[in-house]
Amino acid sequence: MDRIVLSRGGVVLEVSAPASGIVRIRMGRGKLPEDASWAVPAAARRARLPLKVTRNGEAVQVSSENIGARIDLRTLRTDVLDGGGKLLLADLAGRAALSPQGGFRMRGRLSSDDHIFGLGDKTGTFDRKGGAYTMWNSDTYKFTQATDPLYKTIPFFMTVSDRGQAYGLFLDNTWRTTFDFGKAERGVLSISGEGGPVDYYVMAGPAPKEVLQQYAHLTGTAPLMPQWALGFQQSKWSYKSDSEVRAIAQRLRSERIPSDVIYMDIDYQDRSRPFTVNRAAFPDLRQLATDLRGQGMRLVLITDPHIANAPGQGYAAYDSGAAQDLFLKLPGGQYYSGDVWPGAAVFPDFSRVQARRWWGDLYSGFVRDGVAGFWNDMNEPSIFNVPSKTMPLDVEHRIESDDFAPRRTSHAELHNVYGQLNSRATYEGLARLQPDTRPFVLTRATYAGGQRYAATWSGDNVSSWQHLKMGVQQLVNLGLSGFSYAGNDVGGYAGERPSAELLTRWFQLGAFMPLFRAHSETGRPDQEPWVGDAAHVDIRRRFISERYRLMPYLYGAAEENSRTGIPMLRPVFLNFPAVLANGDRLGGSEDQFMVGGDLLVAPSPTLESPGDYKVDLPGKGWYDYWSGQRLDSKSVTVTPDLANIPVYVRPGAIIPKQPLVQSTAIVPEGRLELHVYPGTDCHGDIYADDGVTMAHQRGRFLRQRVRCEESPSGLKLLFETREGSWQPWWSGVALHVHGWEAETPPQAHIDGTALAASVERAQNAAVILMPDIVSGEVVINPGAGYRASRKPMQ
Fold first, then answer.
1. Which of 82, 380, 559, 590 is catalytic?
2. Would residue 460 show up in a list of annotated catalytic residues for this protein?
3. 541 found inside a domain
4. How many other CB atoms are there within 10 angstroms of residue 393's CB atom?
5. Do 340 and 384 contact (CB within 8 A), yes or no?
6. 139, 199, 267, 377: the active-site residue
7. Is the Cβ–Cβ distance between 259 and 232 less than 8 Å?
8. What is the pLDDT of residues 475-522, one digit of tens each?
9. Do 195 and 84 have their domain in common?
């Protein structure tokens, strides 16, 4: 048996296990809801593991691989159990949850030591417990800490106990829904919806990382973005002419500020009409894109989903869409028209395959001109001059897609998935137009599973200290919701011009974010990285440059995310779950964050009025990233310094870095650096490919694990056999062994051949130069004065 179906009182319940550690529960009045999804592909939904079913009185217990459920035969209340039969989630479902008038309300119990994360980039507290949140994609200009809902609907959350045990829940329902984590009723989880299916998955973990991998199994992982998308990106609403865009590129290069992308907002268009170009301001888009490529920069254009309602005016996007009858309609059959940037506008019905293909084909001219990526904004969808800020809920969609039954439905069902389908249409179009080039799409609104198509950002934030701090927490929760490629507008999009100190701090933290884009609205003073006095500009330049030196590490974390769903930007507890039980402020996770598995960034908890503060590290033996010094204590007192943000390195980390370049389009010269921080579980990964094409899917990549074994007599570095056929750019490797206290360099050799070694006192490191090796062992005999690292707390 691979599923159990029960019926009581006119309600039908189905329980199945689509994968190890995951249970799926569906419930409907009279029949089960349609087995279709915009978030979970058919292959993931329809896979079912065998179930073992036992009956005990008025209850049935089912168990599968690392998951189970107990069903009350009278009420259909379903408790979810872990692999050992222990209660995981109680009382959530039951036939009483379904309203005879439509909609549902499910209730369950929350444990007193549970912390709740996810739901995307909601504001409020970092821990969602005690709050209530609405899933309804909304244009929220200048949102605040109390604003809800926001731009995205990601109905997935993860509960983590003080012991570090976790489970996740994903409600696959695109209608307006609400999640209440003990706000209305203390200790009660309540999930309600105005319509749509009761169709949810529970992931048993038990570790937080395992929950995220189980969620990624269901909704997919982000594709590996082009490497240039990890570079610095400069944007503004708007750079209004060809000469202004060129001036921005030239200034970035003359200031020696590494960068890869310039965005063009709506003013490049003819009368703000998508898929047009204002030829007076931009007479030759192809030449502009070509010249920027020559400087190592890509061009990204905005393309909003509102097509100007302009029949008979020679507007190709409207004419071709109308000819195929692809726009949304009112119940009476006429096109729905709403005011946006071009004035009256119509909207594609992205729930139809034909409409998505038409939309994707519209990019062909831009692609021929050399435009590298596209930005889908305003796709909640946002409508001007109406109180709801969106289209009427009775606007009709004609679903003809995936494994949905063809049917008409209202915008009430499709609103929350509109942005996701818009970005999907863009992504799939680019993939067709350039099959061997990785698409780059940026979207503002989306739904669960949208990480398969686009990066995202936190929308129209404000230039304030509150938004800087809040933005970090938003990005961490986005990473815990499947969206690793995320950023916020560095410097703030709206409000007053940021002070020099605020802008500098934002660039410092932005340098560690997955998506590093500076952006601001029209009519404000400039806030590009060179704005201000020389001291501030130098700090910003230094942090942007450090990001480019770290590019091999960041790119490796991006590649890991594409395989596993583990985000690039992480709360500390994701790598060290035990911290939740130690210390306040969630073990540092409210203020600190990790980049990949090895770097911990610890800004002041009060950035706007900094004073000395304490950083509690998850164990002893960590290293100061900037000095390379090994720290004896797990607690560090920091005196804030505008020129610096504290960053610490996990004992046992091996971090790849590269020589500084001004763009990812420039191939570094010289040696790959491997920075070794001795400690337990000492390892690191090298990953590289061409950064642009799909050749990595055909084996043209380089992956190599390096391990470090430490003893009182010295170190051994084990280079495991490489995978893949990609040939590296580096001519050799420079090993930087940190925590070095000896005055003299070590003796090092590989296969009996001595290697050149020196001491770099400023970095507390011994530096060993070695050839590039496919596999092998490097032995480092430090001699007198060497101090082996202390064993960190596990």
1. 380
2. yes
3. no
4. 14
5. yes
6. 377
7. yes
8. 999 999 999 999 999 999 999 999 999 999 999 999 999 999 999 999
9. yes
